Amino acid sequence: MLTDIEIAGQAKMKNISEIAAGLGIDSEDIEPYGHYKAKLSEELYRKLENKPDGRLILVTAINPTPAGEGKTTVSVGLAEAMGRLGKKAVLALREPSLGPVFGIKGGAAGGGYAQVVPMEDINLHFTGDMHAITSANNLLCALIDNHIQQGNALGIDERRIMVDRCLDMNDRALRNIVIGLGGKVNGFPREDSFRITVASEVMAILCLAADLGDLKKRLGNILIAYDLSGKPVFARDIGAQGAMTALLRDAIKPNLVQTLENDPVLIHGGPFANIAHGCNSLRATKLALKLGDYCITEAGFGADLGAEKFCDIKCRIGGLRPDCAVIVATVRALKYNGGVPRAELAGENIPALERGMSNLRAHIENMKKFGLPVVVAVNRFATDTQKELDALFECCSKAGAPAALCECFAKGGEGGKELAELVCSVIDKAGENRFAPIYDTALPIKEKLGIIAREIYGAKDVSYTSQAERSVAAIEAMGFGDLPVCVAKTQYSLSDDPAKLGRPEGFTVTVRDVRLSAGAGFIVALTGDIMVMPGLPAKPAALGIDCDSSGHITGLF
Q1: Which end of the chain has a smaller Cβ tally under 10 Å, C or N?
Q2: Cα torsion at 430, 330, 528, 517 (round to 10°)?
Q3: Triad 535, 538, 539: Cα angle to 5°
Q4: pLDDT > 80? residue 200
Q5: Distance (Å, rounded) from C-alpha 210 to C-alpha 314?
Q6: How far apart are CA 374 and CA 368, in angstroms?
Q7: Which of 207, 209, 235, 205 has its CA nearest to residue 223?
Q8: Alpha carbon distance 472, 445 (integer Å)
Q9: Is it true that the peptide bond before 118 is cis, omega within 30 degrees of 0?
Q10: Going by DSSP bridges, is the β-strand pair 190-192/156-161 parallel, antiparallel, or unpaired?
Q11: pLDDT mean over 9-28
């Protein structure tokens, strides 16, 4: 059996200019990065401004197992299947972070015969967007410390600096550090920290900015610190936004690549869904809606995280109205949610599957709360038995969500035709679009959090630490209480406790702190033990990745 990278290596890729031409994009509107990837010009947006939007399909999932269950693979396979059916579809995905690539999860370009290529480039440096975001973030940090060193005219309180440095790598040793040691010439010693690039506010801003002008304004709105009297200090107060925008001038442009079957894909931006808002850039999604009759986009992790944030944050900011939600479910993930250890997931276990299906029902119900028609994509694995598949399809039927078997990993677009036909049929029959976010942003912060916790997680209540209470009060006092809420929470459970699998009941979500991301335009609520700088596992994926003397890379997955 071929590995993902071996399958990708056999791909017959088309020159990126051919992919662009298939979308009606002129050569002057693509900026090639080699033969098989390109950025799309600012002028293209203006050319397509009056073109009607296509239909928007959101792909989400149940709560995953630690190994991941193939949501991106299904998204890619659905796009390939649409192509085989003669539908003009454009896929919009997030860019992979180097942290998971070299950690435990691997890459994020799909798998098997449902991949986006060139997968080595996409999973590694790609077009440099991650590096540009890292540089812009760290420039801001350098300017803050330099401002303090050069006299601190703004009176910044060094104990209340709100911006971390960042690195697109899992490196737990950098979570908490001390900087400025070595005497006066090296600045003022203070505690600092690093977060992974995809959890930075600069990443969130890039993914929600409408254009360069909006990007610059949002960067200037980053809350960087408080002064000694307790007043907020923003990035614009130290004049950082211009240089930061210069570093991100090219990074804001979406990247065009292709599937193994030469279908068009826009990959742009990559915020994590358990820490940030978990969606590809708004610009890429809007462009895909103009370029195709269907835009297929993905939100990170389960529907309680990425899909909720897609609906309540991204759609609200961008004026998007999705037409359908596809929930990816697997037999093995549902058995895991039913209490089966990871090492025993290959064995048939109908009772555990039935217990775990409570998780799927919760996600179906949640997506319907946004007014969305729901389709379940059953991502088939070789270990699934017919009895297990029959039980899963019966569950979907009783929950009022039509389901289709998806075998894209093994068969590419051919294995996704049933799903593609079902999605198109559901959209055609849906009638008037009834999509709506689940809360009004004008509500107080704690009321918005309460709605998310009760309606999406199924919590009984929300509790707040004294620090969180103070933060909520401070944010509302500054006039930012009317922003949407982005909850940082474990992906493995509907609750804030990763050990509570299935559909937990009667639990309380504990908010330990609340932070303002004024540039991104949302409020971040930190729950559980979520960390903004992950660590590497005992056996990092990096140990299996190699490159020979000819430049041939192996071990990526």
Answers
A1: N
A2: -40
A3: 110
A4: yes
A5: 11
A6: 7
A7: 235
A8: 7
A9: yes
A10: unpaired
A11: 96
